[in-house]
Amino acid sequence: MRTSGILLHISSLPSPYGIGTYGKSAYDFVDLLDETNQTYWQILPLGPTSYGDSPYQTFSAFANNPYFIDLDILIKEKLLKKNEITDVVNDPMYVDYEQLYIKRYDALKQAFNRFDQSDSDYQKFLKAQDFWLNDYALFMAVKATYDGKSWLYWDEDVRLRKPNTIEKLQMELKDEIAFHQFLQFKADEQWHALKKYANQKGIKIIGDMPIYVSYDSSDVWANPKMFDLDEKNVPYHVAGVPPDNYAKDGQLWGNPLYHWGHLKDKNYQWWVDRVRASVAQFDMIRIDHFIGFVNYFSIPFADKTAKNGVWKKGPGYELFEVIKKELGEVNIIAEDLGAVTPEVVKVLNATGYPGMKLTQFGFNSIEDNNYLPHHYKQNVIAYTGTHDNFTTAAWFDELSPKALKNCLAYINCEDETKKVDALIKETLKCVADTVIIPMQDYLNLGNEARMNIPSTLGNNWVWRLKDGQITKVIKNNIKTWTELYARSKKDK
Question: Which of 199, 295, 368, 447 measures 20 to 30 Å from 119, CA to CA?
Fold first, then answer.
């Protein structure tokens, strides 16, 4: 049975508090997915965002973003009062992360002060998550004492986690540590309530797992041996991708690289734990930059561009063999965009995971290529584009006249005002088992709604839906096109 879904991150939902949350708008969006016969809701990573506000650069691979905690739910639980919430909304169409960082934690602290830490569910959560939560809460508490600076700039005995220093900090910062544990409990509680509601409606959640973690994270601070770091825990090399037609200097992501030899010696336990945690959160997991498990690009830490990087071998299929042995069959999507070598194809085939196809990529040149929908196979997830691409409306504006002409002919579009709709329909028609359409494309939005421009800072990850933006006409289009071009979850 073929299925379809919509890509929309939690942060992009409407809410009165400056960013999307696990509250009413999220439940309303689940209802919309149900009413339009969708099967999947795809989101971006849920971790607490750090510098640059990217959900792909978070303070923990396991933690949840406290900004997504719904304040109205806290009010209903009598943990918060309406007058304790400071307004952070400058423009309902965009998230203001700076204002959230300055003001949101004040309200959350009020809720924490009223919370009964002897609560049995809370105590169960602490016990179940202690394999990562204590390190994360301590990391965040210590970070606050350094005014939010990266742990690269902390005192050496703290950076190197000298036992006496850590013990002292745990005592001195116990209240702040408990605060961050509380935030994780509430975020997890609200998220799972939302997921349960979605699953009861027949909606499955596709989560997103970045291959790399941020250097400024509890993961690296607490587990330095897992990464390519020197004796002072400073990276030798960092991640990125080489120069190409889109970026002449390549992309310098800056994430520390894994010490795959050490991870192998530990039977990849950290990765098994990470996937297990994601299985508990989501129904399907999209692993970002899957090709990096086969070949990864290693760039000297001090370099300012990716030009001097070199390709190195990753663990390949061996890692996923261990994951399957430990966890059984896991629903994973392999984000295989980029340098797809025969070796990558071999690993992908061995895992059986579906890869990704982007219809936009089929028309970026005038040549026939594997991203044209008639080349797709069933075991792929098809998209018009993703969070890293132009919205389809903006993408059409970037095409050369010849590429535009070829594209309009291919999608059988004679009315150029309907070209975005035509590309959506062409994607829905393909033989792929699952098709995911970004919400911005259904809304026919331009570059003002683009989620991310890779390798840039500023104005990324900020776009939001406005109340009422999904009209009855748009809702009817989604439902009708799904029924016409992609068999739905409600087909018999």
Answer: 199
Of how many residues is the chain composed?
A: 492
Q: Residue 75 has which token pair? A: 């009010």
- Compute the average pLDDT of residues 161-190: 98
Q: Shortest CA distance to 92 belongs to which of 465, 470, 471?
A: 465
Work out the angle at residue 36's Cα, subtended by the Cα atoms of residues 34 and 40, and round it to the nearest 5 degrees.
Answer: 60
At 89-123, the pLDDT tens digits run: 889 999 999 999 999 999 999 999 999 999 999 99
Beta pairing class for 237-241 and 295-300: antiparallel
- Bridge partners, residue 238, by sequence: 256, 299
* Residues tagged active-site: 288, 335, 388
Name 380's bridge partners. Answer: 355
Q: Which of 7, 125, 92, 122 is nearest to 388 (CA)?
A: 7
Quote the tokens at residue 368: 């026939």
Per-residue pLDDT averaged across 352-377, rounded? 90
- To the nearest 10 degrees (0 to 180), the angle between helices 174-200 and 97-114 is 100
Beta carbons within 10 angstroms of residue 216's beta carbon: 22
From CA 128, how far away is CA 44, in angstroms rounded? 24
Element (H, E) at 425: helix 419-429
What are the two backbone dihedrals, phi and then psi, of residue 179, each rounded to the nearest 5 degrees?
A: -60, -45
Q: Please give the average per-residue pLDDT across 183-197, as a whole number.
A: 98
Q: What is the pLDDT of residues 134-171, one digit of tens each?
A: 999 999 999 999 999 999 999 999 999 999 999 999 99
**Cα separation of 221 and 224, whole Å?**
6
Q: What angle do CA 428, 11, 112 make, to 5 degrees?
A: 145
Say how far apart CA 212 and CA 56 lie, in whole Å.
8
